[in-house]
Amino acid sequence: MEYYISYVAAVVFIFVFRALETCSAKQITIQIPKAKPSDDGWYGYTELQSCGYSIGNSSYFEFSVKTCTGAQVALMSGPMDNYQLYEVVISGMDNYETVIRKYKGGMTMIRSHGGMLDCSAFRAFQIHWDNGVISLVRKCRLGKWLKILSWKDPNPRPIRYVGVTTGSWASSTWRFNQNVGENQDTLQDIQFETRKQKGPNYYYTHLTDYQYKMGQQTSITFSVKACSDIYVALLSKDTDTCTMYEVIIGGYGNTISVIRRGKNRYNYVKKPSSPADCNEFRSFIVSWPRGVVSVWYETKVGDWQFLMSLRDRKPIDVRYIGMTTGKAASGTWKVAL
After folding, report:
1. Interstrand relation of 133-139 and 145-152 (parallel, antiparallel or unpaired)
2. Which range is the signal sequence, renumbered to this chain (predicted)?
3. What SS3 class is residue 209?
4. pLDDT in tens, 175-189
5. CA 140 – CA 133 distance, rounded (Å)
6. For the purposes of burial, counting CB atoms within 10 Å of the CB of 187, is it exposed (0-12), middle (13-18) or buried (19 or more)?
7. Angle at 6 between CA 291 and CA 261, to 5 degrees
8. How far apart are CA 15 and CA 301, in angstroms?
9. Could you say which of 14, 53, 122, 191 has the lowest number of CB atoms within 10 Å?
10. CATH code at position 319
11. Which of 227, 218, 240 is nearest to 323 (CA)?
12. Are the C-beta atoms of residues 52 and 178 closer than 8 Å to each other?
């Protein structure tokens, strides 16, 4: 069988724990407790946008951290800590080794040795990304910044989100400034409506009509206000007739959510659920790293719950995205850029 279906949230969300967050107008402080060990070694990141941090047009992240070992920063294309990210591990292995990885838990691309963290004092760092060059910079005692290591990715990914963790090896406290200001250029969400369609067929609104560019991302975040039948097409080409994954959230009168391989094809995944709402916007994430198509929904601000997942052993090369509410409902959409 070509498809392996998994409803287990552990595909990406193993070890995700709720950080204790204290947000102010200028500075954010996050306390992350030491997580319980996982049988398969996975760990989760606290994504910083939930506390007000936004990359905007910046190409670096400045922060201070107080921990004994293993301060990890994920530079992500999407808001989920899937495999498609850059991972900077500061003084892991009992405050000894610092590395840069191209994937979560992946192969080390470059390393440096020496302890830079302190259990009882904050240490300041910057992580830069520019044209595929990932660099870690440390603030020294005299106030000067010293580059620790740097690595260039020949096939760079877009970086839109930042996550932090110390996993199961330590607790930690992080400090950083909100990167949102009145003078900062920020991208606005795409907003559009889909009408209830008539006739034997249904058609997708393609995000390219709104100048949405995919880049190398493997997830999309959006909100929608609709009574049912929230359709998302992950397309290989910019047409409704191409090879695609079809995700339906709250279909069949807001009773079942499904994942298909092809438009109006067999339901490889069926999950009883009622996530749609006629009167309020509901937020969702659809991701597709390495052929694993997964769906999450937001129960409250910053709290994402796993809904369903499909693992495709012959992954589709997703290049475009379409959205519709088909023949059963109308909807108002907001798509995060």
Report:
1. antiparallel
2. 1-25
3. helix
4. 988 654 433 334 457
5. 22
6. exposed
7. 45
8. 19
9. 191
10. 2.60.120.200
11. 240
12. yes
- Residue 89 C-beta-side C-alpha neighbours within 13 Å: 29
Total structural domains within the chain: 2
My answer on whether 173 and 270 are in the same domain is no
Residues 321, 337: Cα–Cα separation, whole Å: 13
Range of the domain at 79: 27-36+43-177
SS3 44: coil
In the structure encoding, which two tokens stand for residue 48, read together? 């910083």
267 has which bridge partners? 260
Q: Which pLDDT tens digit goes with each residue over 212-243?
A: 877 777 888 899 999 999 999 999 998 988 89
Q: Where are the beta strands (DSSP E) in 190-276?
A: 190-194, 205-206, 219-226, 230-235, 244-250, 256-261, 267-272
Please state the pTM of the whole predicted model: 0.54
- Rounded Cα gap, residues 121 and 67, in angstroms: 8
Q: How far apart are the C-alpha atoms of 268 and 261, rounded to whole Å?
A: 8
Q: Are 91 and 69 in contact (CB under 8 A)?
A: yes
Please name the amino acid found at residue 256. I
